[in-house]
Amino acid sequence: MLSYFANPQRFDRLARIAIPVFAVLTLILLGAGIYMSFFASPPDYQQGDTVRIMYVHVPAAYMASALYAALAGASFVYFVWRHAIADAAAAVIAPIGAVFTALALATGSIWGKPMWGTWWEWDARMTSVLVLFLVYLGYMALRSALEDAQQAARASAILAMAGVINLVIVKFSVEWWSSLHQPASVFRADGPTIHSSQLWPLGLMALGYTMLAGWLVFYRLRTRAIARRADALLRQKEAGGRR
Amino acid sequence: MRVLTAIFAREARLAWAGGGGAAGPAAFFLAAITLAPLAIGPAADLLAAVAPGILAFAALLSVLQSAERLFGDDFSDGTLDLYLLTPTSLAALCLAKVMGQASATLWPLPLIGVLGGLMYGLPPLSALVLGAALLAAIPALALIAGFAGALAAGIKRGGLLIALIATPMMVPVLIFAAGAGRTAFAGDERAVANLLLTLAISLGTVALAPFGIAAAVRGRSG
User: Fold this and answer.
1) Rounded distance, CA A23 to CA A213, Å?
2) CB within 10 Å: which end of chain B, N or C, has fewer?
3) Is B185 helix (H, G, I), strand (E, B) or coil?
4) Are B171 and A131 within 8 A, CB to CB?
């Protein structure tokens, strides 16, 4: 399966189908999610209307970590099997993940002001998301600093994989600070503690965000491949002209 | 083994050769801990309270000072390619290299840390705990800096890039090393736990990082 799509032409055919599918799913899910979050769901009995920030914040935070997992997974596939498309995927996922992380930080801060009375609190989860953002920045900086494409691919794959170990340790070490953040309330063994009228819009938004990320990743992968091909053609033409 | 001791000794000698390189981190550390009170103000109780954090943070920054040099020079003059050809394990070799440089340049940091702690008004016992925590943290800090240095070897003005890559990885060591000093100052018995956790992270880094550095060196060659 992996090696099947390592062929650029096959991948291009896949991307041509995937891009519109993701686009349509994004529009439907995000549209429904936004309608439910902002109009069709009741205000929270404690938080009032500010609870609606949750519907844009929680999915962003989830995408921030999910995309890092995807980045590390793609890096691993590239590192072990040397699939060029896995490397390209890692390259395009990083900035998208960084943007979702920034979005999670910004919306979290906006939500924190009315809820906790402060824009920023050095609690465990916020701090580890900030560290995650730095990890994304370091990854992108290393990738863009290395000119040789193969060295850039290998070095950044190693960094992305080391980042996984690091992020786990960071998560546990920042827990040492007492936390203002509420404990996990959706994924729990005894079932979600959040009411279904809030769970529905949240779930729709999370799915919508996921589809949006998938859309962006495939779109950028295809653009990147086309740009590469254009570069190669230009170079060929230049070389031919000189002869 | 002889190869490893030779490389260890080579790094230590190299750090001392060529004018002041070995004293760099120590001098930077001293400069940083001199500046901090000027920024914070001379209030004694405030300085003592922030001392463990400032000192651990300044030590972290000073370790980053020598990271660019460690692999950068060997990358550009081809020494790294020769290392790749030796039959000795590359991971062991990288460990010897990083530790060789660290042993030559970073040993003053815990001493200056104790001195700085006293100057900031920490009780002697807390200052000693902080010094011990810095000592325990140095292998982890040096190896993480080495890992970032290997990834960014040969990049022009790679120092900033190394700092950006290494700082997120240094978060846990910083938390526990500074935490040891802080809890010791507060008279909290968890100081020992913090100290041991710093040591644990260092040992874990000694076990894992050499393979990461070796992979980085391989990834950057050819």
Assistant:
1) 10
2) N
3) helix
4) yes
